[in-house]
Amino acid sequence: MLAYCQAQDVLFAETLSRLNLQALELPPRRTGRLRANVWRNHNFETFEGLLRPFLVYAGLDLECRVSEYDDTLGFAQWAPADVEILWVDSSRYTDRMTLEDWLAWLRGRLQDLRSRSSAPILLASWDPWGARDGAPGLAALTDAVPGAYVADLSAASIDEGIVLLDPRVAKVSGSPISRPAQVALARRLGCHWLPGLLLPPIKAVAVDLDNTLHAGVLGEDGPDGVRLDVGHVALQESLRALKERGVFLALISRNEREDVEALFAHRADYPLRWEDFSVIEVSWGSKADALGRVARQLRIALDAVLFVDDNPGELASVAAGCPGIHALFADSTGAGTYRALKYFPGLCRLSVSADDARRVEDMKANAERDTLLRAAGGEEQYFRELGIALTLRYDQVADISRLADLCRKTNQFNLALRRYNQADLASLMVRDDACVAAVSLSDRLSDSGTIAALVAVREGDMLTVTELCLSCRALGRRLEDMIVISAIRGMRLFDGCAQILFDYASGPRNQPARRWLDGLPDRLGAKVAGDGGEMPAESLRQFSAPSGVELMQE
User: Fold this and answer.
1) Is 221 in the same domain as 337?
2) What is the CATH number of the domain that holds 297?
3) Are residues 530 and 451 in the same domain?
4) Of the chain's two ends, which shows fewer C-beta atoms within 10 Å, N or C?
5) Could you tell me the pTM of the whole model?
6) Domain ranges, residue 247
7) Which pLDDT value is given to residue 127?
8) Both 325 and 418 in a single domain?
9) What is the pLDDT of residues 82-107, one digit of tens each?
10) Which residues contact 10 (CB under 8 A, 6 or more apart)?
């Protein structure tokens, strides 16, 4: 833990040092070896060396198989990989193509690679012709290619405040990317783009208060005495931006609760407000215990939480008491914490959907739902008072991105853990023997968006549910049976089938899904075969949906 805290000064420095990066040694914390195919027409090896320390910090053990230089992107000697990277010097095409021709050609290359590989595709390049109003851009390339994403190196360089290209470097290194851009883009690739494709996302950031969100100690300095430096303001603003993108915020502080409430009520200069936190834990107890309560209240696993604190000993204690949790050391000025948070692996979303953005507000409504449930005379009254509506959709391309996110991000209610990606789902949608279902949920308190993904395959009279994912935001509303059974009964493949089989794979956190499956036969009055995953289709046909829930199909 201490080595990783110390590494922040090198990895998240305002100005990166090539020498410091190359000298950095971190004990590996691997998630299992992964492979990347790198298809390139300019130098990648120099860049790969700079990438390594960021990947180690992220917990990625990535073997890069780098192709020969190839302007045609022919994908010679392709072999399966966990991610496909197109490392393209676009300036090599300007003398023979227009921007429109190049984009059309590159789209064809992406589609050809997609026909070979179901892995995520990352196109890392830039527009050498210069952006023009109304002209298609790099981002438009991936619209017709499921599971493909763009790393716009020019936009990233502008954000970093550095020059992307230096023709003098190309003569020596075999790439026109400038030396400052090489290290900055290595950080982007190792902290943002690759973790965004390969790692489970961080869903919540839990922050300490004293000497983290401000300088000083509230209990000693009082609300007026604690100080906001420029770095603290930037840090708080970045945390609010994360909340707007659907990341939960939690406050973990050893203080008197009334003092903390007074601070947020009194200090109008704080960008963060009391109501921005989905969970607030203020006490003199163990922070590890408090973080456990945070995770349970948010219905997420501890390894989806990032804890930020200014005390290395506290970070070590939390790491020991909360296995899998992510930790970040906060510096006294806030500036270093702001930069570290900006780049921390797992926080970057390659795309943010409306479902992501509504997550925080939807979870806040759970307290009112719990109150309604306790006061209601029964489930049906509870459903009627909430005004619950379920919408079923089948094999709709527009759902692919959200369903892939559910397959990748959902851990607690994920039966088979197959982690279907966009390419997998697109392929399944066009098969006659398969069906992909999306279920949306809303009530009078909030619109939860798409909360369930189901994939089923028919063989003979057997319908096998190969993937079933239910978002944590939908759990606890007494709707699990209704969601799953309604989605299955609405499938065209359900007609005439005799048996239903639920595939299941045991994982470290999907016991809630297993418990649901184990209890389903009793709730349906069904006789089961084997370990309980197979049951008569007739038991689903006879399921009586509770009144008070509106069911629609698009």
Assistant:
1) yes
2) 3.40.50.1000
3) yes
4) C
5) 0.86
6) 204-343
7) 87
8) no
9) 999 999 999 999 999 988 899 999 99
10) 17, 20, 21, 24, 53
